[in-house]
C-alpha cells in the first residue's frame, strides 16, 4: 500500500508535468483537475497510514542509503503534504480560471506548476541532505519560471533577481552539505544528527551549519536578505504569488528548521540563536512598516509576507537551550504559524487578485466602494487579515498563543513583545486596506465582476485559516504520532 | 450531546448563523432579512431564559474542550453570565427592531445586519466565557465585528473614528493578551470560579500579580471607557444611532466593565484583590472617571456627544461598585450593569428619533420637541431622571445601594462622589428636559412625517418599552426577579464559599 | 599540503571570487557566470575534500554529477530570462543600479 502511495506522491506530479508539456492550457487544466484529486487521495491516504501505523522510512526502489534515496514520512511531513495539496489545489483552480488561456506562453503554466508541486513533496518527505538540495532547486527554478511567465520587463526583472538570489542560496547550502559529507561520510539527516552528538568538538561543524542556514535564510527571505521577495511576489500573477508566499518560502524554512532541531543544540551557540531571532523580529517590524507604506495592493501583501516570515524564525531561539516541553510548544506554535500563514496568505493573494480584476487597478485607494460590489472577496481578504494579525479565533492567533507560551516558559520574555507588537503593526496595514474599501465615493465606478468560482476558492482558504484556530489541537496531534526508530 | 452543553452553543450559534445567512442575502430582500433578524433575536431570548431558569435551580450549563495544548475553550453559564446575557439578548431584540426602522432606505443593510449579528454573538460569548482565554477570544471578535458598524456610513469622519476606535481597542487587546499570558505562565489555565483562586499562590508572586492586574484592567478599561482610555467613545458617535445604542448600552462598554467584574470577582477574588491593595486605586480611577465624564458632558453641544460622555461617567459606577469591598457595594455595581443599559439605550433611541424625524443633532435644536414628539420626549425624560437618580427609578436604586455599601466599609468618600455626580447629571440633563417641554418650538428645517404617529412605529416602540422598564425595575426592585434581586444572588454566591 | 586541503583552499578562493563577482558586477551574464563559478567551486570542494575512505568515493561524484545537471538547467533558465529581458528593454543590467541578489531599493 505504501508503495502505491509513495509512487503517487512523487511520480505523479512529475508525470503530469511532462504530459502537460504536450498539451495546451485548456487541456492542461483538465488534466490538472484530475491530478489534484489524485494528490488529495494520496495525501489523505498517507495521513491515514501514518496515523494507523506510525511514521516510517522509505527507501526509494529498495536501495538503501548512502547511495539510495531515503525518505522520511512522519506526522509533520504528512501534515505539510496535506497542506500543500489544499493550497496548491486552490491556487491551481484559481489559476485555471484567472489566467487567460489564449496567450501562447500560458501552456507552460501547468508543467511549471506540477514541477513546483513535485519539488514541494520532495522537500517535505526528504530525509537526505542532498535530496533536499535537489528538491529546493526544483522548487526554485519552477517558481522563477512561474514569476516570469508571460510578464513584462518588470516581471522579468523580478524573476532574475529571484533566480540569482535562489541560486546563491542553494550554493551556500550545497557547500554546507559538502562540508558535512566530508566530516561524517553520510548524507542522511538522521545519521548526521546522531553522529554530531557523538563528536568531541561539535563546534567544528559550525561553519557548515552557518553556511546552510544563511543559504536557506536567503531562500526564505529573512531580513536582511529579503530584497528579492517583494518584487517577485508583488508582480507575479495572483495565483502564482499565492503559491510562492504560501508554500515555496516555507520549503527552505522547513529544511532549516529540521537541521536546527536535529543538530543545532550541540553545534550552535546561544548568540547565534538569539541573533536569528533578532533578525526575525527586525523582519516583522521592517516588513510591517513597508507594507503600511505601499501604494499598490499586492505589494502590501508581499511585504506582509516578509513580516510574517520573521515570526517563523523565532523557532530558533525558542528551541535552543530550553527544556523539552518548551521546545515542543515552540515547534507546535511554528507549525501552526506555517499552516495558518499558508492558508491566510494564499487566500489574501487570491482575494487581492479578484479585487484587482474587479477594480481594474492595482492601487489601494482604488478600492473605494468595492464593498458593495465584491463583498465576498473583500470578506475573504478580511478573514485572512484577521489570521495575519493574530486575532482570535484564527489559526494565526493559535500560533501566536503557543509561541507566547513558549517564550514565557523559556524565560525569553522579549519575544513576547515582538509577538504582541507585531500583531499591532500588522493591524496597521490590514486596517488600511479595510478602511480603503469602506470609503464611499460618489462617482460611479465601473466594476467588472470576476467569475464566482474565483471568489469561492479564496473564501474557502480564508475560512480554513479561521477553522485552524478552533481545531488547533487536532492538527497538532498528528505531529505527535509515533515514529519508528532508525534501522 | 446533553441539553446542558447544547443550549449555550445554540445561544451562540443563533446569531452566528443569522450573520452568515444575512451576509449571503441579496441587498433587496429586506423582509426576509428582517424576519431572520427578529427570529434569531427571539430564539436567543428564549434560550437565555431557559438557561437563567436552569441557573436558578443550580443546573450546570457549559462545556469545555481543549482547543490548544494547555488551554481550553470554556463556556459556563453562572449567575453573573446570565445577567449580562439576559441584558444582551433582550436589548438586542429591541435594537434590532429599532435598527430596521432607522436604516430604512439606506444602503449596505446586509453588511450592517451581518456584522450586527456577529457583534451580538461575540457579546453572548463574552457573557458565557468560562475562562480568560475564551473571554479574550470573544473580546477581540467583538472589536472586529464592531469596526464595520462604526465606519458604516463610509464618510471621512466615520473612517477616522473607526481608525481611532481600532487603535484604542487593539492596544487594549494587546495589554489584555500580555496580562493573560503572564498569568498563564504563573498559574496555568484558570477558569472563572466564584471567589477566585489566586490566593493560593506564593507570596513572592504578589508583585507580579499586581502588575498583571494593572495590565488586565488596562486592557479591559479601554472598552469600559475608563479615564484616560475613553477617547474613542465620543468619536464613535458618528455611527448610526442603533450602533451607538448597542455599543454604548449593551455590547462594547458593558463587555469591558463585565470583564473587570469577572477579573476582580472570579479570577482574583474580592478578598485577595483587597489584600493586594489594587481595589482602592481602581476605585479612585473609577471615581475620577465618573466626575470627569460628567464635567465633559456639560461642555458638549451635540446631543449624542453629551450622551457619550455621560456613558463614560456612568459605566464607571459599575467599576466603582466592584472596587467597594463588601457585598452591598458589589450588588450596587452589578445591578448598574442592567440599569445603565436600560436607561442609556432609551436615551440613545430617543436621540436617534430626534435626528431622524426632526434632523436634530445639537441640543439647542431640541427646543419644544416635547410638543412635537411627546412620547419620545417622555421616554427621554424618564430615562434622564433615572440617570440623575430620582426615586423610584432605576438609577436611584443603584446609587442608594452603592452609597450603603460604601458606608458599610467606611469608604465615605464614595458618597461624596455619588452626590457630586448626581448634581452634575442634573446639571446636564435638566436643561435638556427644560428645552424639550418648556421652550417654544425650534424651526426644524428637515422634518419627516409618518402619518398619525410622531415617528416611524418601529422607532417609537423600543424606547417606550425601555423607558417603562426603567420605571419598573426601580419600582419593583424588591421582587424576586428584579435586577436587584439577581445582583444579590450573584453577590451571595461570590462572598460565601 | 595534502591534496584535499589544496582542493579545499582553491575551492574557497574560487567561491570568494564568484561571490565578489555576483555582488559587484553589473552585467547580468557576468553575474550568471559568477554563479557558475561558485557552483564549480562547490563541486571542487565536494570532490576534492569530501573523499572518504582514502579511495575513489562514488557518492560525492554522483552528487557532483547531479549538481552539474541542475546547474545547467539553472543557467539555461537564466540565459533565457536574460535574453528576453534584453529583448524587451535593451538593458543588460537590473535597473536602478541595484546589486541584484541581496539589496532592494525601497520602492
From TrEMBL, chain C:
Subcellular location: Cell membrane
Coiled-coil segments: none
UniProt key word Ligase: no
Transmembrane spans: 6-25, 32-50, 62-82
Membrane topology: Multi-pass membrane protein
Any single Gene Ontology cellular-component annotation: plasma membrane
Keyword set, alphabetical order: Cell membrane, Membrane, Transmembrane, Transmembrane helix
Family: Belongs to the CPA3 antiporters (TC 2.A.63) subunit C family.
Protein name: Multisubunit sodium/proton antiporter, MrpC subunit
